[in-house]
Automatic annotation (TrEMBL):
Keywords: Apoptosis, Cytoplasm, Phosphoprotein, Sugar transport, Transport. The lineage of its organism: Eukaryota, Metazoa, Chordata, Craniata, Vertebrata. PANTHER family: ASTROCYTIC PHOSPHOPROTEIN PEA-15 (PTHR48169:SF1), DED DOMAIN-CONTAINING PROTEIN (PTHR48169). Transmembrane segments: none annotated. This is Astrocytic phosphoprotein PEA-15. It comes from Calyptomena viridis (Lesser green broadbill). It holds the Pfam family DED.
Amino acid sequence: MAEYRSLLEELAQNITAEDLEQLKSACREDIPSGEGDAIATGHHWFAFLERHSKLDQANLSYIEHIFEISRRPDLLTKVVQYRTQVLKISEEDDVDTKLTRIPSAKKYKDIIRQPSEEEIIKLAPPPKKA
């Protein structure tokens, strides 16, 4: 449970006021009218999602979906990394069924690891001025 709370804390720290408006907009169908104004921080947003059974330590697929459609691959990557390291779901496991309901998270799991020497693009030095 401590790792889960740490994850939420780290995610909340990376959500600006502008980000929060975008996230709330992405899940507006799940926020009853009038309750959206009470969600003023990332912490409030996560608490709201937990109260409404959209989020818990065993079910992160909702926020994965919201981070995906809100174009926040950095936050989605943190969630996928949590699942891989804390929940011990190996990369060989079927990501689409074990990690999330959205197949797009599969493309972000490669962001977690460091690229190999062959994957790094080498740039030529700039041309010398004559």
